[in-house]
Amino acid sequence: MAVTLTGSDGLFVRLGKIEDLRAKIKTHQDLIDTEITDILDEYNVDRDMAQQILTGQEGFKAAAGQPLSTLRSDAQKTLIDMVHADTPLASKDIRSALLELIDQMENSSDDVNGSVVTAVATADAGNVGDGNLVVSATDAGGVTNQFLKPETMTVQITKDTQVTGTTGRDEVFAVSGTAPVGNDHPDWPDGSGIAASLRITSPDRNAQDSVGQTIIHNGSLNAFAVADTPDNWILNVGSPGTGINEEGTTTFRTAKSLMFLGDGAELTSMEQAFNTAGQSAAKVKPGTKYAISLRMQISAALAAGVLRISLKDGSDAIINDAAGVAISDSTTLSTLSISDFQVVTLVFTTAASLPSTVKIVVELTTAITSAENLFINDIVMAPMVQFGGPGGVYLIAHPGATDWVRDDKFTVAVANDYAGLFQTAFERWFNMSSMTRRNGLAMQLPLNLAAGESISDSLIS
Prior knowledge:
This protein has helices at residues 11-40, 51-55, 57-64, 68-86, 94-107, 421-430, and strands spanning 112-113, 117-123, 132-136, 151-159, 172-176, 195-199, 234-237, 244-247, 257-261, 269-273, 289-298, 306-312, 328-332, 342-349, 359-366, 373-383, 385-387, 393-398, 409-416, 447-448. It is α+β, with helices and mostly antiparallel strands.
């Protein structure tokens, strides 16, 4: 059996009618603002004559929106009762009904139009610190998170070494979103209301998997108990002292860096296995959004050289993420700087089931130009931190060569075009962003961003 989605008495036909009325009420509320502005334009003087109109503006809009709670109630009852009539629910509540509906839609390959959502971090021009902030607008499954609220978030240092005495490279950001409004408010959906903190993730706190810590051991590449061999790393290709060197001059922030020496032929490679004695004791968690970052610089303009960083299993096959995409990123080395270390970042979500062996591999897939060199520091792999609940944005901050100081900040511009009308309506009626699915993914309808969705927004009419 399956819930009737479209056609006579279909779920989306019924909810489309309810949403159409809600949209017309919203248009009426907006018209109140327009018309009152038009009225007050004629009272540039003698404004007191229209004072009651001015002070009553918000009340007029609230009164116009009184039917919205009734529409919400009946939308929720429609969802629950139709799903329960098809497949009896153990608990007749919104979450249970949504879980069953989404499962059925995935099984039948039904979907709705999606919204285009972006989140972009920008460092303040006056920052002293030169670390980076990574932001992700996708959910744990790599699907665009449909319910991010449009806003400009502020991510600002509140604890540093100079003012508050925090250890260097252990600074703390305050993460702030704009004020939220209720789902029936005329200005919905404004603001996430986020008010939280973010500890930076440093390569110095290594082989650990808590917030602010990296699961890689000696990711800074500063420890060499054996000459030219970085501690906790296995050298697959490249001889210490000839193909791989510890470098003490060209470094990112520590006393040493790792240098790959180019000879035009050798494909230098090294790896570190997780949950493995002598390498990294930390484990890679399934169903978790991670960010890998590393800093690299080249000695001179290169004619050739490509470096790949990836996660592999015990058979040296690259592991796929939760979306079935290889966890791998390649950098053409000629695009790097010869004067400073540049950051490269890879964001992904691990699959629900992982192989018994998981290792991070750093390797050349195209040899470096003979007599030229690549310098590497600060390889970090850590879980990203989600803000704003299950439907919120993911962030992670990495330190730079210069520590951040108090009031250094980033802005995160979040945009959502809300083109997915049913997706947006379901958030308004059912607060989907506050829920997760059984596998930890955000609760949202299967979506199509390339047109051709099976359930058209035209049913909202």
